[in-house]
Amino acid sequence: MKPFFLSIILLFSAIHYSSAQIVDGYTDKLSYRAGETVVFYTKSVLRNGTQNFILRAIDNTISSQNIGFTLTTQPGMNTYQPWYYGYDYTATATWTVPSGFKSGLYFLNSSVPVPIIIKGEDKSTADIIIVIPTNTDEAYNYSQGVNMYQIDPSTHHEYPVMSFHRPGRGQPQLYEGFLKWFATTNYNNMNVSYISDMDMDDYSEIAHAKLLILIGHSEYWTRQAKQNFDQFVDAGKDAMVLGGNNMWWQVRYNDDKTRLICYRDGNIDTDECDPLLKTIQWEDPSLKHSALSSIGADWLRGGYGTHEGCYNGFNGHKMILLNSPLLNGVTLPSDNTVHFTTGEFDGTLISSLDANGNPILDVSALGFYRAELIGYDQTSHIHDNESGGLLDRLGITNMRSGMKYTPFMIFQKTCTSGKIINVSSNYWCSEYGIGGSNSYDACQSWYITTDYVNMRKLTSNMIDLLLAHDETNHPVFVNSAPTTFSMKATATTVSYSACMNGSIHVTPCGVTITDGYKVDNNNNRFEAKIENCISCTRSYARMAAATSYPSATATTSEGKANSLINDSQDVMLMSPNPTSGIFSLQLQEIATSEISIYNPLGQLIFQSSIINNQSSIDLSAQPKGMYFVKVNAADGQMFVQKVILQ
What is the b/e burial string over 591-604, where b = at least 16 CB atoms within 10 angstroms of the residue's CB? Predict the structure, then answer.
């Protein structure tokens, strides 16, 4: 009997071993490129032995990569605040990404997925960049029942720091529908790179792409990532925002980028003395960098649609600009609405309603060169009804009731910047949106039939037209470009911009200057916007700049006059321009002077005196892009010109 009993035990063990599964885990980083090694930290139902697992793509396509894992129950797991310090699993496998491995979002082929983002092999060749909202995933990650929305019963504070070294995921259901659809399209055969939110901190990851696509619920942004997004668009590149509740919280990472930091409840740590690092909403004036200025809509002016609660909307986007090229090939129902579960909305600035009760974009208040509202949904729910909340801090009292509008819009911030299309709903990319699944609206007791056919056609039109990047032969706008333009100064301002031949004075902040805004030659008015303050300690918000053309003065909020110079091309001779890095600067009729050069983020990278009105300058160590050369003459005049590194 003893040998028989032993054989049963061995047989049972073999069966159990063969079906062993990884129950959870994480990787050492969020994303990888070919040649980099992925380190896995996984927990298994068995403690001893090894087992191979296969990587599968988001569309369940199985790769040929077999990875051998050491099986362990992770008995040494860290149990002291693992949400902060990480789970401290022991490494169980490594895998080096082979050359030619297709970019995408992958998982271990196990019952509990461990996500891995594989970036494009060469970041300089990607035409399309798709950003996976990993920061939002981490903020909503309920591993061990703790995340940034879980209140600590001992302190009554929300958890402000989340370790990326813990298992679990937050809200992948809000973008998996898009990724699964995209994987079936011809776009996926193009040069596409999938990156994480953390990769957005490195501008070189996106600098060479033609189109940037934000998907799902992209709520948590670092300052550097937001500046890089703006720099990408300001350089004339296009973007699609296929989500809602975007760019709401400013966050940061710790030094080794293993933790996400966001003090959502208003408490700050000792590292947050700098207000530019304070983890509060982007709309707060102290950050000088609202979401409106980047993507045309924000959560402050939005609210909830279907799935999140009862509302007075259309269960989708009602289309009103029916001759928009984005609607080519779209067959609308009688109510002109593309139906889907709408989730959380971003709202925008509306000036009034037309005769049919449809909202009219307040393009002037947005400060954009041009914008069109293709469609919209509406909601009467606002997220911030508490006394002392953001609305009160901003002095806004008229948004606690009444209708809000979520835009399906296209806009161009300046006459030289790229185009941005924003659908403003965080369920667009979900299974209940472009994924095609129907959903039940418990509030209104009916099923919402998702019009995924039209959603996919709309999304394809967006991609096709933006990739064409040809407003003459493949227009995205219905209306022609404006011939005159003036901008309202806003609270998010810190640089001057103008579409004119010449240059303008750089404020003491250190700013970005772009060929941004039209000068109205008919009434000789020029209104400028200040934007993208990096290290400014003085208030330059709400600048009034009604000035004469071509030369004028503008007064800042501190009452100091700034010269707007229009003849710098006759004073500053730069050759060659564009340049590979080394160029000469020769000045005409200026006695003594000092030169300062700023990068596209407004950061000072070079400063020197000019001897005998001529200088040789070497910027070859700087990244390719547009730089701004400022000359301060001894008589107080200031001249600025652009130089292009290519």
Answer: eebebbbbbbbbee
Burial class (CB in 10 A: 0-12, 13-18, 19+), 333: exposed
H or E stretch covering 161: strand 161-163
- What is the spatial distance between Cα 504 and Cα 640, in angstroms, rounded to a whole number? 6
Report the first-to-last Cα separation within the chain, whole angstroms. 82
Higher-pLDDT residue of 558, 483:
483
In angstroms, rounded to a whole number, what is the distance separating the alpha carbons of residues 457 and 338?
11
Peptide bond into 550 cis (omega under 30): yes
For residues 234, 237, 243, 244, the Cα torsion angle rounded to the nearest 10 degrees is 10
In 3D, which of 554, 487, 491 has the Cα closest to residue 517? 487
Distance CA 60, CA 66 (A): 15
> Would you state the pLDDT for residue 413?
85
* CA-to-CA dists, residue 530 to 48, 177, 494, 512, 603, angstroms: 62, 39, 3, 9, 15
User: In whole angstroms, what is the distance from residue 524 CA to residue 545 CA?
Assistant: 12
Q: Is the distance from CB of 78 to CB of 87 less than 8 angstroms? A: yes
Q: Is the peptide bond before 167 cis (omega within 30 degrees of 0)?
A: no
Task: With a cut of 90, say whether residue 359 has pLDDT above it.
Answer: yes
CB 205 within 8 A of CB 195: yes
* Residue found under tokens 């950003």: 131
Alpha helices in 188-236 (DSSP H): 223-234
CA-derived radius of gyration, the chain: 27
All structural domains of the chain: 144-468 (no CATH), 568-645 (2.60.40.1220)
Residue with tokens 């199985």: 62
Full-model pTM: 0.74
pLDDT tens per residue, range 236-264? 899 999 999 999 888 889 989 999 988 76
Q: What is the spatial order of strands in the sheet that 37-44 belongs to?
A: 22-27, 37-44, 93-96
Both structure tokens of 640: 């600025």
Share of the chain above pLDDT 70, in %: 70
Res. 312: pLDDT tops 70? no
Q: Which residues, other chains included, contact 36 with Cβ-Cβ below 8 Å and sequence gap of 6+?
A: 96, 97
Tokens of 40: 């896995």
C-alpha distances (whole Å) from 70 to each of 112, 297, 490 are 16, 48, 57
